[in-house]
Specification:
The protein is an alpha/beta fold. The chain has one domain: Metal-dependent hydrolases (TIM Barrel), CATH 3.20.20. It is 50% helix and 12% strand. The longest helix has 23 residues.
């Protein structure tokens, strides 16, 4: 079933897979770069879109190139707070009522300037909180706005990724890169828990991002066990560029509550373990397990279309298999700037190309609220989700959509 853009824009929404450093306003990126003398390929918005932030990329590597420029400007604390504030505003303007902003603090830390994890997370929260307070004071809002922060560990990095990572390798000159990476993830998780518990920051989860193939989730088991023991929610980028085995590892080794992307779950040719003889049966069992446990897939349609050269038509996206298997899914942007998209655009892309009757659409919206890592108690999250669904019904009625 197809829906009008106005209805999809008006209905309450969430974005649970939203990278801060991939979601700046292009005009703000240029302004921020000029402020701190960061060199860009172009200082014209269209010029940047033509050279860096394109509609179509050759591969994931080209897609990720733009993050060099966004991370460069976000190592300035004023820029970081501004970007966080504007990201919240941009979501509010299209009735995205709840967002979970994720990023890797260690990519932005600069020990030489005494900019550490604490300073960075406080500045991000300052920007988001200001936008939240301004929005929730409005009398004409349909549903209040809220947010959480997710800290990302990197599956792989080297000393060129950031000043912090450079220092880490210098401090551990004789250690293997895998050990350094795992140790750094543990430091991130420990810091996230401390800042949540002692400083009251709404850090609601951890994530594992970056290059997937060759850097298995099991390398980060200790970090995720620590999060698990301290009631910190867990999501993992898995099945974006590697197959079902990666998703299995995310669930079994990292206790994943949600899966970022999950695109390759149904690609049997990506299964490589020699002990898995019946690949189709393995996928069937894994998909059934994920569906039964309501482990939610954070679906990012445009991003997958841009980073997977073999995916020529969005109708071939495995979102259709997720729907057929009755899996819990929620629609996300991944990166508003890098993918040149919005949450409303993603819902429009989904509903125009897949069979999504209004009951299923409401379920997808509901999963965004119910499976969020909301920082309140379970009762508070449930009440918030209930208000969102009541508001969905009001918007549907306004647009003459029968429930």
């Amino acid at each position: 079933m197809k829906y009008t853009y106005d209805f999809l824009k008006d209905m309450p929404k969430t974005d649970l897979h939203l990278h801060l450093d991939g979601s700046l306003r292009v005009e703000s990126l240029i302004d921020m770069a000029k402020k701190i003398n960061i060199e860009l390929p172009s200082y014209d918005p269209q010029g940047l879109k033509d050279t860096v932030f394109k509609d179509k990329y050759q591969n994931l590597g080209e897609y990720l190139k733009g993050f060099k420029y966004t991370c460069d400007v976000l190592r300035d604390l004023e820029n970081l707070e501004r970007a966080s504030y504007e990201l919240a505003i941009d979501n509010q303007n299209e009735d995205v009522n709840y967002i979970e902003v994720r990023f890797a603090p260690q990519l932005l830390m600069n020990p030489a300037k005494n900019i550490g994890m604490k300073e960075i997370l406080h500045r991000v929260n300052d920007g988001l909180l200001r936008a939240k307070k301004e929005y929730n004071q409005k009398k004409d809002k349909g549903l209040e706005f809220d947010y959480g922060i997710i800290c990302c560990a990197m599956r792989m990095f080297n000393e060129k990724f950031s000043p912090y990572y450079s220092d880490i390798f210098k401090l551990m000159p004789n250690q293997k890169p895998a050990y350094v990476i795992s140790n750094t993830a543990m430091e991130l998780t420990t810091g996230a828990i401390k800042l949540r518990d002692e400083e009251g920051l709404p850090i609601v989860g951890i994530d594992l991002a970056g290059e997937e193939a060759g850097y298995p989730a099991v390398n980060f088991k200790d970090s995720y066990e620590l999060a698990h023991r301290n009631f910190l929610n867990k999501t993992v980028h898995a099945g974006e560029a590697y197959g079902a085995e990666s998703i299995f590892q995310a669930i079994t080794d990292c206790y994943a509550d949600r899966i970022g992307h999950g695109y390759s779950l149904f690609d049997s040719e990506l299964i490589v373990h020699p002990k898995i003889k019946d690949k189709k049966k393995y996928i069937q069992n894994l998909a059934s397990f994920i569906a039964d446990k309501r482990i939610t897939i954070e679906v990012c349609l445009t991003s997958n279309l841009q980073t997977n050269p073999d995916l020529k038509d969005i109708k071939d996206h495995h979102f259709k298999d997720m729907l057929e298997n009755r899996m819990a899914t929620t629609i996300c942007t991944d990166n508003r700037l890098v993918s040149n998209t919005t949450v409303t655009d993603e819902y429009k892309l989904a509903t125009d190309n897949f069979d999504i009757p209004v009951k299923i659409l409401k379920d997808i919206v509901a999963y965004g609220f119910k499976k969020s890592f909301h920082s309140g108690s379970y009762v508070e999250k449930r009440e918030y989700a209930k208000r969102a669904m009541n508001y969905f019904d009001e918007v549907a009625k306004k647009h003459n959509i029968s429930l």
